[in-house]
Amino acid sequence: MESVSELIGADVIALRVHELAAEIVRTRDEDEGDDLLVLVLLKGAFVFAADLLRALDQAGAVPQVDFLTASSYGTSTTSSGQVRLGTEPATTVEDRDVLLVDDIVDTGRSLTAVRMWLETRGAGRVRTCVLLDKPSRREVAVTADFTGFEVPDRFIVGYGLDCAEKYRHLPYVGVLTP
Ligand code: IMP
Ligand code: MG
User: Fold this and answer.
1) Of 29, 68, 69, 101, which sits most exposed with the smallest number of CB within 10 A?
2) Cα 106 to averaged position of ligand 1 atoms, centre (Å)
3) What's CA 13's distance to the chain center, in Å?
4) Do 106 and 137 meet the contact criterion of CB atoms below 8 Å apart?
5) Ligand 1 pocket member 105 (CB < 6 A)
């Protein structure tokens, strides 16, 4: 039986999410004004984004939010090496200041592919924010502008992240032990 052992507790995540929101607001462009379109990569980032958006409110931002899908994983725990862009955001991204939010950077392919997609759609300043970074597995040189935690080369679940659609509901980040 597979099981999950806790790696980052809910309290630690909550503190870090507030730090990230403060950092995002602090590093806004002067001319950016109130414009901030938060684009959330589903499904993995939905829990992180829900907390981050409310922390952004506390930090004084007035973000809008929309969603898009990209998948590089099927139901297995190894990357297929291909990124499929699925549902596009309904909001026009042209000239908007975008904060792209994802759950984890692994090979770096998803973040790179979505950033390129945003550029072809004429987005303004694009910044990226991820909860987790697994630098040991990088195949495309990319670093998020804002990163919550670095994690070891283990399969991570919880707080939105799944293994074959399980464990997204866990309030903490854990590692899967087969
Ligand atoms: P990348 O394109 O390889 O960087 O993969 C990014 C996507 O793969 C993330 O948005 C996750 O959905 C998924 N992913 C990568 N590593 C993990 C993991 O350890 N657990 C769960 N999902 C993962
Ligand atoms: Mg994902």
Assistant:
1) 29
2) 5
3) 14
4) yes
5) yes
Q: Which of 32, 41, 36, 62 is nearest to 117 (CA)?
A: 41
Residue 162 a catalytic site member: no
Catalytic residue from among 51, 102, 103, 106: 106
In angstroms, what is the span from residue 105 Cα to ligand 1's centroid? 6
Contact 105, 144 (CB under 8 A): yes
Q: Could you give the CA distance from residue 158 to residue 175 in angstroms, rounded to a whole number?
A: 8
- Is the Cβ atom of 128 under 6 angstroms away from ligand 1? no
For residues 130 and 102, the answer to whether their CB atoms sit within 8 Å is yes
Q: Residue type for 110, please? A: S
CA dihedral 42, 81, 136, 55 (to 10 degrees): -10
Cβ 79 under 6 angstroms from ligand 1: yes
pLDDT bucket at 76, cuts 50 / 70 / 90: low
84 strand-pairing partners: 71
Distance from Cα 84 to the centre of ligand 2, integer Å:
11
pLDDT of residue 29: 73
Which residue in the block uniquely carries the two structure tokens 């959330």? 40
Whether pTM exceeds 0.85 = yes
Question: Residue 52: CB within 6 Å of ligand 1?
Answer: no
